[in-house]
Amino acid sequence: MQGNAIESRMTQERELVLYYKPTCPFCRKVLDFMNEDGIELPMRDIVADEDARQTLIDVGGKQQVPCLFIDGEPLYESNDIIQYLRDNCA
Questions:
Q1: What confidence category does residue 57 fall into, taking pLDDT thresholds of 50, 70 and 90?
Q2: 14 by DSSP, 3-state: which?
Q3: Is the pLDDT higher at 83 or at 7?
């Protein structure tokens, strides 16, 4: 699922957007978890979308993926993202 930065999924009144890179094994780990649990979120591929990459750097301060923006605040590390999704979306 892709789109512009305005799209988001409201989950328990939180705006969630996942920034990822298709070749990143840690991103794949998060995406596999989402697929297994039927979780769908707006996603931004930072390789295919230069604006998404720049937003990740501008807002998060670095180009690290995966990054889950929760109400505009970045959450890094695949295990932390999976735990957040397990607790709030699954």
A1: very high
A2: strand
A3: 83
Q: Is 4 helix (H, G, I), strand (E, B) or coil?
A: coil
Quick: pLDDT tens for 27-54: 999 999 999 999 999 999 999 999 999 9
C-alpha to C-alpha distances, 41 to 14, 35, 38, 81, nearest whole angstrom: 12, 11, 10, 12
The full set of domain ranges for the chain reads 9-88
For tokens 């969630």, the residue is 16
DSSP 27-90: HHHHHHHHHHHT----EEETTT-HHHHHHHHHHHSS--SSEEEETTEEEESHHHHHHHHHHHT-
The CATH topology of domain 9-88 is: Glutaredoxin (3.40.30)
User: Token pair for residue 4?
Assistant: 């512009």
